[in-house]
């Protein structure tokens, strides 16, 4: 756990900087795009030491997969609740329990694409 903290802190700092610049431009530039550009520039101009690699690998694989899964889950429930007249119950499944199950599934899956 200690090995990933410096890289996670670095990734969080880049994300905060990207979000701040996006906010400063009134959302004209996407925070995600800025974070990608900041990461590319930092790696190519300043370089990264071995201190950041474990945390960046964790953020780029595990956290990214969880984030993508949660975005997909949110979109799915938005579509289902839109079809069902705005009810929070979709097909008899509560979103909170499904989200927790989805997160557990992502956390337990190792390797693979």
The average pLDDT score comes to 77
First and last CA, distance: 23 Å
Query: What proportion of the residues is helical, as a percent range?
Result: over 70%
Structural class, please?
A: mainly alpha
Q: What is the general shape?
A: flat
- Strand-residue proportion: under 5%
The total strand number stands at 0
Question: How many helices in DSSP terms?
Answer: 4
Which value, in Å, is the CA radius of gyration?
18 Å
Flag low-confidence runs: 86-98
- Please, how many domains? 1
**Largest sheet entry:** none
Helix-strand sequence:
HHHH
Structural features, described:
- There is one protein chain.
- With 113 residues, this protein is mainly alpha-helical.
- It has one domain (5-108).
- Helices cover 72% and strands 0% of the residues.
- The longest helix is centred in the middle third of the chain and has 31 residues, at 53-83.
- The two termini are 23 Å apart.
- The model is unreliable at 86-98 (pLDDT under 50).
């Amino acid at each position: 756990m200690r090995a990933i903290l410096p890289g996670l802190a670095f990734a969080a700092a880049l994300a905060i900087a990207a979000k701040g610049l996006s906010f400063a431009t009134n959302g004209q530039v996407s925070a995600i795009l800025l974070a990608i550009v900041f990461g590319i520039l930092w790696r190519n101009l300043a370089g990264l030491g071995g201190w950041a690699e474990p945390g960046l690998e964790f953020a780029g694989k595990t956290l990214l997969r969880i984030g993508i899964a949660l975005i997909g889950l949110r979109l799915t429930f938005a579509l289902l609740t839109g079809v069902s007249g705005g009810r929070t119950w979709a097909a008899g499944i509560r979103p909170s329990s499904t989200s927790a199950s989805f997160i557990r599934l992502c956390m337990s899956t190792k390797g693979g694409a």
